[in-house]
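Annotated sample (chain length 424).
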Amino acid sequence: MSSTTKKTIDVKRSLVDAILAGLVALIVFGPIVGIVLDGYGFNLQPTRVAWIVAIVMAGRFALSLFLQSPKGLKILEGFESTGSGVHVLPPDYKTRLRWIVPLVIVIAVVFPFFSNSYLLGVVILGLIYVLLGLGLNIVVGLAGLLDLGYVAFYAIGAYGLALGYQYLGLGFWTVLPLAAITAGLAGCILGFPVLRLHGDYLAIVTLGFGEIIRLFLRNLTGLTGGPNGISNIEKPTFFGLTFERKAAEGLQTFHEYFGLEYNSINKVIFLYLVALLLALFALFVINRLLRMPLGRAWEALREDEIACRALGLNPTVIKLSAFTLGACFAGFAGSFFAARQGLVTPESFTFIESATILAIVVLGGMGSQLGVVLAATVMILLPEMMREFSEYRMLMFGALMVLMMIWRPQGLLPMQRPHMELRK
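Output written by the structure step:
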């Protein structure tokens, strides 16, 4: 190591960083790892906590020393965002996504025929959150409106299907667009009282709206079943063909119509394909809207509302359109969720669901559709694959979010905008 490098390394600073990291580790891991419940009492495990704190301090000390070295400084420069302006692409430029996206779609269509029912069930849940994330991405990522009550529209779509089937005898394909329209109207109604609100005030009002809808569904026992919810909801059918072992009166089963042997996985495959079609439909519609004046208006509103008004755009119409379209996709997701589960209860639509969907949008990258897909995969699939560490899943999730905010605050796949990097 040269004398110049030795001068740039501050050991005292590294020690301070290590001590602070140890204190944080003690606060975070102490109650989780150091206290083990034993019936109505508990046992203290100071040795485990001491080992974890020591490992964290040693790792932080080594990392701090490394980041002060020339190689570490070069790595840190790679994380710095630089430049602004306009980046002009060559006339013959073609994005690599024109090959990647069709390949991913083909893999997604073929995937269920080589998988099992458990893995398909996890992927279906991930696709539901993809649909929810795409809808909230319109409101938060594109229009810049912080919505913490998005789960309310999710609940409206789910209960729309359940009530439509129970009281009107309507099937899944009939209620699906109706539930989306109903959720969209609810989003438009919510948009009117919050037109003058921004930031934290908007978040508080939308959070209250989400809780009001949940409590309303819980207390309206005569119509919604209260805390017990509504069960025995009809599953989606394929042109009137059901995927059950025996069809109800007036219906015919899929395997009997095509002369196949009954297999329960066929129902799961069909649900997966329906969820995949809904997610692709949402991606297509949002991608088209982004290229239209409405999509540009959303981005203008997000960047600066005053400048948006100066351009002659109407912020009222823009906000209402964002709330309405975002709620429509939540209605689609809610209807499919109710059909998949066969049961809806108010406890399926708590605030933690809104927080999870918002985390997907932030983790993927504000305004990025592909980022939402990737973040939903990380948020839903990885915890299911790490069930052996179920006690530490939320801790690992929190650590992941903290690391993302430090190293890549723009998200996993940030929205690509025209830019130019200035030469140093």
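Annotation: Residues 3-79 form one domain.
Annotation: DSSP finds 18 helices and six strands in the chain.
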